[in-house]
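[retry 2/3] 3'-5' exonuclease DinG: previous attempt timed out, resubmitting with same input.
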Amino acid sequence: MNKRFVVVDLETTGHSPKQGDKMIQFAAVIVEDGKIVERFSSFLNPGMDIPPFITQLTNIQNDMVKDAPLFEEISPKIIELLDDAYFVAHNVAFDLTFLQEELYQCGEETLYNSTVDTVELARILLPTVDGYKLSQLAEYLHIEHENPHQADSDAEVTARILLLLIEKLKKLPLTTLKQLYALSLHFKSEIGELIQQVIDDKSYAEDGSYEFIHGIALNKYQPHSANEKQHSHTYEIFETEKQKLFHQALPLFEERKGQWEMMNFVQECFAGNEHALIEAGTGIGKTYAYLVPAVFYASVHHHPVIISTNTVTLQQQIIEKDVPILEKIVPFPVTAAVLKGREHYISIRKFIQLLKERNNNYDAILTKAKLLIWLTETETGDSDEINLPSGGKLFWEQLNESNPSPSDFKHPWKLYSFYERAQNRAQNAHIVVTNHRLLLMDVMSNHELLPEYEQIIIDEAHHLEDIAGEELGERLDYFAVHALLNRIGTIQDKGLLKKVHHTFVKYSIELNTELLQNLFVQLHSECDDLFRLIHSFVQKRIGNQQGEIGRSSYRYKVEKEHGHYWTAIQEAASRIRFLIHDLFTWNDGARHSLEELYDKVTKNEQSSLHEFQTAVKGFEHISQQIEKLLFKQQSHHVTWFEIEPKGAANATYIYSQPTSIADTLADEFFAKKQSVILTSATLTVNGTFDYLIQELGLYDFQPAQLILPSEFDYEKQARVYIPQDMPAVNEVSLYEYSAMMAESILDVAKVTNGRMLVLFTSYDMLKATYGYLKELNDLEEFVLLGQGVTTRNRNRLLKDFSQFEHSILLGTNSLWEGIDLPGDLLSCLVIVRLPFSSPNQPLLTAKFEQMKKEGKSPFMNYSLPQAVIRFKQGFGRLIRSKSDRGAIFIFDNRITRTAYGYHFLHSLPKVQVVQKTFSNILLDYKEWWNEKT
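[retry 2/3] 3'-5' exonuclease DinG: success.
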């Protein structure tokens, strides 16, 4: 490739040159003939002080730029460098716009270079990367990044990324390049020009690692051979050699007594067909402790063992990291498979069809481009592998393997079904890794989704109750209905109805699609009205009070609601059901014509007809849900509405869940399986499993029980601080308490320079505290991140928190668990309030009513145990390895001033607890922290 690329990076005092922001550093790296041939960089005097936030980000100080040239002094050199070259940058729009403005202010002419954005190019060519920040790409591509956020280092890294991406582009099969070029008209930078030159230069034959179907290239499928599960080694023989085998497989292996104990315990439970509960503290190594006996059992007994997790992260860890090591430990080949629901897997047939459809939406175009590359690499077709843009997730709904058509089960599509491949791998595997949701769907669908099994290990088992409640309940929301109606569309707009109408016209089928369109238009209007009415109804009942991240909820009972608003809701719901009835009347009348038509049309037309019929059937389910949720009295269930008061007027959700899932799990799951092992780091309260046994329905099964404390040395690694002079939350106003929290948090942060996670149970308190912190942090000493304030995206929050050294992260519900911030990423944890769930939550209110009827204490039997488990999860965020060290501040004085506070402290591992006034605690903390540093 004989193009000349100038890779540019700028550091600036801010984002807007029109508002006075200036450059403080310019750097360019020149690439020709696939090599870096020249470099240029210079600090620049901005004629103003560099803001503290920028200094913290870039490490560029005022004294580094005070004697540097002004921009106009180097502008001729910049223009010379850019002559007849591609302008390349990481987020090219920012760098080019800022540079253009600075040049304009110097009286220079506008730049007209073709651009290449390495963010856009990487998003296309590296579809599975977690993120596309420069630091993330450098780490992924193993490029050393010496001084992040300094222009010379950033430009160098960007240039090296560009070279690697161009090399990847050259290696793509020709058919993929042609498909990419067809999409490139809609890219934001001139990537199409690069693709065209690669196509022109391409001279070699394809290397045989691809297979081709209808103009797209796929990674060549290598069927997994079914390994013979029999072997001569029993677990008992392995048990005598396990230390040697572990050391051989893991050179840095640290022997853990708890791991051996858990391994033998799981083996005994499998052998004795027992259910079991195991609390394995952090650092035990529980994954290997259950995988080893599981794979031995599966191999000897010719049945797979199911491993169910709550998070994709743990599933990936098991398959990508743990199983390869497991193969080195056990003396026979191990087969493992991941199995998820159909909606996780791409349909090649649907993708080929959608690829041909014209679409100007950027996210849809970008998703198509990413998928083209991904299909040349993926073995699984699982969407969890790919980093889709936000709009691409909606696009994915149209091309996954859910709702397969009859042709999907025929040649050749059945050969290219990633779901079928996953099922085949699972049938022949020792270990099948799945998720709690699919597991429970399998239980409720008479075990049709997973391979036949008798033994299962449920990791992250503290989530099972919540997910079981969701799967045994109902949920209907405006966005799901709206998406279905949009998918159908109209005769004029893009959508299934337009395709079906054209097919009818083409084959002279006399079916009244105008009538059908009118039905869908009315359905759209009536559904919009229904959810708006519910939104208004909830606001009338509860006002504008907000729950978690801006949500408000109202519990209703069909048999007790009355009044004008409720009548209007039921009338709107009835109109929807009548329209759906009319829709099915039309469909019944058209069935004979559709069946005749199906044999005449092309395969693509068959597919559209099938998808249309599937979408229509979706309304049958919606009608049933409306009847159940808004007209029928549901015993042993709680029903509630949830709205976003500050969101759209139809941002409404309707829920129904059983008040208890214990009997259903007991009858449909535990009674039908030989051995269910439930494990987590947090299952006990006060040293017993009583709470979990009661809630999950294990009381009649007498499960075996094992508690293994963490092997971390918390007495040395951690310290708990409880200020004695903090007021009770109910003694002062929300804003007074939040202001005091903000001051205290800032005082603590100054000791460790940030790296602090602050956990709230109230979104209102989080927002108020964030506001006060922002005022107190006027010098921008710390980067403040607030869940639901700066962003609602949990992953984005964690990435930003990891990136900025002096950062404070304020989080609510989802940050209490499931995040891993080892080492110096997290130095201090603040628990603002003990994590009791709001008793006003509809599901909890109903549970409490039922418990009172049974003569139980809702607080002692449910609220307290649930809060203690969550508290233990929060505590577990701090120490993630034997080298970690950090402090926990608990600002809720109920932990020491109430009788039940004992339960929280008693749940902690052996750790030093310091109770003093806040000022004295701060002195103790500084002294202890300085010992560390």
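[retry 2/3] 3'-5' exonuclease DinG: The longest helix spans residues 564-598.
[retry 2/3] clearing retry counter.
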